[in-house]
UniProtKB/TrEMBL annotation:
<dbReference type="InterPro" id="IPR008922">
    <property type="entry name" value="Di-copper_centre_dom_sf"/>
</dbReference>
<dbReference type="GO" id="GO:0016491">
    <property type="term" value="F:oxidoreductase activity"/>
</dbReference>
<dbReference type="InterPro" id="IPR050316">
    <property type="entry name" value="Tyrosinase/Hemocyanin"/>
</dbReference>
<dbReference type="GO" id="GO:0046872">
    <property type="term" value="F:metal ion binding"/>
</dbReference>
<feature type="signal peptide">
    <location>
        <begin position="1"/>
        <end position="19"/>
    </location>
</feature>
<feature type="domain" description="Tyrosinase copper-binding">
    <location>
        <begin position="143"/>
        <end position="174"/>
    </location>
</feature>
<keyword id="KW-0186">Copper</keyword>
<dbReference type="Pfam" id="PF00264">
    <property type="entry name" value="Tyrosinase"/>
</dbReference>
<protein>
    <submittedName>
        <fullName>Tyrosinase protein tyr-3</fullName>
    </submittedName>
</protein>
<keyword id="KW-0479">Metal-binding</keyword>
<keyword id="KW-0732">Signal</keyword>
<dbReference type="InterPro" id="IPR002227">
    <property type="entry name" value="Tyrosinase_Cu-bd"/>
</dbReference>
Length: 175
């Protein structure tokens, strides 16, 4: 076992050293940074321990599943603990103190609806002012800083800025 640990250490060092040498020879500073990011992703991936996969059965009737799990208790354990866990307006309505389920009426009398994304330049003056006030509010309560931290750590989640996951990632984390 000791020889395996030593061999792994030597190979890891050799791979890292070789990759850094390759990055140092990149023709432009931008390509050097990209090379270093890819090298870091590779090194980080190699240090992650494999996780055990959980079997998710198809939906079925309440009761005992073929695996011996009480399905009703599993279903009841998925109650959202925060508004961010909600998947529909009826769930969000409860967190905002509204009534009426999917046709939610908020305590101030307004109807809760899905948000409509608009480009800043096409907003009305009132919408623009509401947006600016909301941004200052989330900046003041720390939510903006949390979003910025998650967004800035894209090196740990490369799908955020490359490939087909770019738009869904940003829609989910920056809404």
């Amino acid at each position: 076992m000791l020889w395996f640990t030593i061999l792994y250490g030597v190979l890891s060092y050799a791979i890292t050293t070789n990759a850094q040498g390759i990055c140092d020879n990149a023709p432009t500073p931008a390509l050097r940074i990209t090379c270093q990011q890819i090298t870091n992703w590779d090194a980080n991936t190699r240090t992650v321990r494999p996780t055990t996969r959980t079997l998710v059965a198809a939906p079925g009737a309440a009761g005992i599943s073929p695996l011996g799990v009480d399905i009703s208790s599993v279903a009841s354990s998925t109650t959202p603990s925060t508004v961010y866990d909600c998947l529909d307006i009826a769930c969000i309505c409860l967190f905002f103190g509204g009534t009426g389920g999917s046709s939610c009426t908020l305590p101030n009398g307004q109807t809760l609806r899905k948000a409509i994304r608009k480009e800043f330049r096409v907003m009305t003056d009132d919408e623009r002012q509401n947006y600016i006030t909301a941004m200052w509010t989330i900046k003041g309560n720390g939510d903006y800083d949390d979003i910025a931290r998650i967004h800035s750590q894209f090196i740990t989640s490369p799908g955020a800025h490359s490939g087909p996951a770019f738009l869904p990632w940003h829609r989910e984390f920056i809404k």
